[in-house]
Design goal:
The chain has helices spanning 2-14, 26-35, 41-54, 58-63, 66-73, 80-94, 104-107, 115-126, 135-144, 156-167, 173-186, 205-208, 269-277, 325-328, 335-347, and strands spanning 225-235, 244-245, 256-257, 260-263, 286-291, 297-300, 304-315. By secondary structure, the protein is an alpha+beta fold. Residues 35-186 form the HhH-GPD domain.
C-alpha cells in the first residue's frame, strides 16, 4: 500500500539517530519505551543515557535500591513508571534469569507494560506483527483517513488498532511501527504541521478537506484539582533539617519532601505562621518563620495543579534525627522541591549547590 511504503521510505531517510534504535537488546528497548511514556525524546534521552551508564543490564537495575532508581529518575515525572520499572527488572532478573518475554502476549504480563509498550517491544525486538498505537499514531491515522472518532472514547483504541493492523506490512512490523511513530513526532505534529512538504500530502484526506487542525478529535476534558502546599524547611543551630518519605498512595509516592501543611487556599502570612507554630513536626521552640517565596510556585501535574510555598523555620537547639543538607541532597525529591531548595540554599549561602 502506498501509505505504508511512503512512510517507511520517509523514515529511512529522516529518522533520528537514537541509541535504542541501534540495538535489538530487549532491556534497552524496554527501558526507552518506559521512559518515553508521557515524555518527549529530548527530555528522555539524557535520562536513558544516565540509566544505561548506571545500570548497563537488567541485573544492575534489579540489584539497585529503589531510592537509587528514583534519584536517577528525578525530574522525569510520573514516578510510578520508575517504581514499576524497578520491580519488573527484579522479576526479569530473579524469576526469568534475565531473559525477557519474547511475545506480545507474554510481555503484557510484566508490571508497567501495557498494550502499546508490549507491541513496541515485540515488534522492535522480535519483529512480531503487532501494531503500535500511541498519540502520534492516533494523529497520523485520523488525519490521513479523516477518522473523526473521539480518541478519548471507549472504542477508539480498538478502532485505531484495527486500522493500524490492516496497514502493517507483513514482516516489516519493526520498521513500519517506528516509521509511523517518527512521522507523527517529526512531520505530522500536533500544531502547524508542514503539509506542503509532506510525502503523504497528495492523498491525505484531512488536508484535502482542510481539516488538519481539527483532527484528531479529543472531547474529554481532564478534571484538574487545585491544591495548596506549604513546605517547612526547618533549620536548627547546626543547620540540620528534616525530611520524610511520602508513603501514602498518590503523587510522588516514595519520594522525599519537607514537612508539609496543605491548606484549602492561599492564606495570609501571619495566619500561616500561627498554623506552623501549632504543629508538632519538631519539639524545638520556633525562633523565626520566614516565607521564602512570596510569589507562590504553580506546579502543573496531569490531574492536579499545585500552588507551593516554602517557609524557612528556624528553631532553638538541635533537631532530633535531623539531617545535614549534604545527607538530604542525596535523597530523591519531586523536581519542583529539588529545584527550589537548590536555589534557596545557594542564595542563602548555607551550603554549596547540589551536585
Amino acid at each position: 500500500m502506498k501509505f505504508s511504503n511512503s512512510l517507511i521510505h520517509w523514515y529511512l531517510q529522516n529518522k533520528r539517530d537514537l541509541p535504542w534504535r541501534n540495538t535489538t537488546n530487549p532491556y534497552l528497548i524496554w527501558l526507552s519505551e518506559i521512559m518515553l511514556q508521557q515524555t518527549r525524546v529530548a527530555q528522555g534521552l539524557p535520562y536513558f543515557l544516565r540509566f544505561t551508564e548506571a545500570f548497563p543490564t537488567v541485573f544492575e537495575l534489579a540489584n539497585a535500591n529503589e531510592e537509587q532508581v528514583l534519584k536517577l529518575w528525578q525530574g522525569l515525572g510520573y514516578y510510578s513508571r520508575a517504581r514499576n520499572l524497578h520491580k519488573t527488572a527484579q522479576f526479569i532478573a530473579f524469576e526469568l534469569d534475565g531473559i525477557f518475554p519474547a511475545t506480545y502476549k507474554d510481555l503484557l504480563n510484566l508490571k508497567g507494560v501495557g498494550e502499546y509498550t508490549a507491541a513496541a517491544i515485540a515488534s522492535f525486538v522480535y519483529n512480531e506483527n503487532v501494531p503500535v498505537v500511541d498519540g502520534n499514531v492516533f494523529r497520523v491515522l485520523s488525519r490521513y483517513f479523516d477518522v473523526e472518532t473521539d480518541i478519548a472514547s471507549a472504542g477508539a483504541k480498538k478502532e485505531f488498532t484495527q486500522l493500524a493492523s490492516e496497514l502493517l506490512p507483513k514482516g516489516k512490523a519493526n520498521v513500519f511501527n517506528q516509521a509511523i511513530m517518527e512521522f507523527g513526532a517529526l512531520q505530522c505534529v500536533p500544531k502547524n504541521p508542514d503539509c506542503t512538504n509532506c510525502v503523504l500530502n497528495d492523498s491525505c484526506i484531512a488536508l484535502q478537506k482542510k481539516k488538519v487542525a481539527q483532527l484528531p478529535v479529543k472531547l474529554k476534558k481532564t478534571k484538574v484539582a487545585n491544591r495548596f502546599f506549604n513546605y517547612l524547611i526547618f533549620s536548627d543551630e547546626e543547620s540540620n533539617t528534616i525530611i520524610s518519605k511520602r508513603t501514602a498512595k498518590g503523587i510522588w509516592h516514595n519520594l522525599y519532601e519537607f514537612p508539609l501543611i496543605e491548606t484549602d487556599d492561599l492564606i495570609l502570612e501571619n495566619e500561616m505562621v500561627d498554623v506552623i507554630k501549632k504543629q508538632s513536626f519538631v519539639s524545638n521552640e520556633i525562633v523565626e518563620v520566614t516565607l521564602c517565596n512570596p510569589e507562590a510556585i504553580l506546579h502543573k501535574l496531569s490531574h492536579q495543579h499545585l500552588t507551593i510555598r516554602f517557609w524557612e523555620v528556624k528553631v532553638q537547639g538541635k533537631i532530633n534525627n535531623g539531617l545535614t543538607y549534604e545527607s538530604a541532597k542525596a535523597m530523591p525529591f519531586p523536581i519542583v522541591i529539588f529545584n527550589f531548595i537548590s536555589k534557596f540554599w545557594v542564595d542563602s549561602q548555607k551550603i554549596t549547590k547540589f551536585d
